[in-house]
TrEMBL record:
PROSITE patterns: GST_CTER (PS50405), GST_NTER (PS50404)
Signal peptide stretch: none
Annotated TM spans: none
Protein name, per record: Glutathione S-transferase family protein
Pfam families assigned: GST_C_2, GST_N
Limits of the GST C-terminal domain: 90-213
InterPro entries, alphabetized: Glutathione-S-Trfase_C-like, Glutathione-S-Trfase_C_sf, Glutathione_S-Trfase, Glutathione_S-Trfase_N, Thioredoxin-like_sf
Lineage top rank: taxon: Bacteria
């Protein structure tokens, strides 16, 4: 059965691949699962039909027959459980890869989201200039440790896994701030993720929807 995911009819990022449907597209591409996309407007996201699938009125969602999921981490985990390629077979290695999925979403992403909020939504506030360096330092405090863990390795724990897929996706959001380039090994790690054929296909698919039209 071909699953259907949802994405923005028009992403606010204009095709940079930062909205979370890109993570789900990437996971689907990694496991070779064809999929369909239902594009939704902001109004549609808040309508009862969509709220029945996503209680918080957001994207992405995932529908596969009677199964309806929301939360990107849960969708990626479901795909990794159903298909080979995103989680190791060995019990302990699998548990560690899942730990990295949680680390990406629960430990590394929150300060990055805070930075995006500070840079985009709070930049006109009178206190913004004073707060921004503090928020940036909270991101660095996490990246310092992540960078030490990664060292010279290609991926976080052995072979590429769903943990790397989510971690690269989270770190990608830092690119515009310039902070990612302060960490040579993390910048190379993200570039390695972006070079994967599955990521290239996922990025191209969301770009085809969201690229700014030239008229
Ligand atoms: N915890 C949920 C998950 O992981 O799936 C969070 C889902 C979520 O935040 N979805 C966002 C959404 O639907 C899209 S990705 N927002 C609309 C709303 O809440 O009304 C967040 C996002 C949006 C835009 C950019 N951008 O333009 O750069 C980046 C990320």
């Amino acid at each position: 059965m071909t699953p259907t995911i949802t994405g923005f009819e028009r992403s606010p990022d204009g095709g940079k691949g930062l909205a979370r449907d890109t993570r789900v597209r990437w996971a689907l591409e990694e496991v070779g699962q064809p999929y369909e996309v239902r594009l939704v407007s902001f109004a549609q996201m808040k309508a009862p039909e969509h709220l029945a699938i996503h209680p918080f009125g957001q994207i992405p969602t995932y529908e596969e027959g009677p199964l309806r999921l929301f939360e990107t981490g849960s969708i990626v985990f479901h795909l990794a459980e159903q298909h080979a390629g995103l989680l190791p077979g060995d019990r302990d290695a699998r548990a560690r890869a899942i730990t990295w999925m949680f680390a990406a979403l629960n430990t590394v992403e929150p300060p990055i989201l805070e930075l995006m909020t500070a840079r985009i939504f709070e930049r006109d506030k009178p206190w913004s200039e004073e707060r921004l360096p503090l928020v940036k330092d909270r991101v660095r405090a996490t990246l310092d440790k992540l960078s030490v863990h990664l060292g010279a390795a290609d991926w976080l724990d052995g072979a590429f896994s769903a943990g790397d897929l989510l971690m690269v996706s989270v770190l990608l959001r830092l690119r515009m701030s310039g902070i990612l380039d302060e960490y040579e090994n993390l910048a190379a790690y993200v570039a390695r993720g972006e070079a994967r054929p599955a990521y290239v296909r996922a990025f191209a698919a969301q770009f085809a929807v969201n690229a700014p039209s030239i008229s």
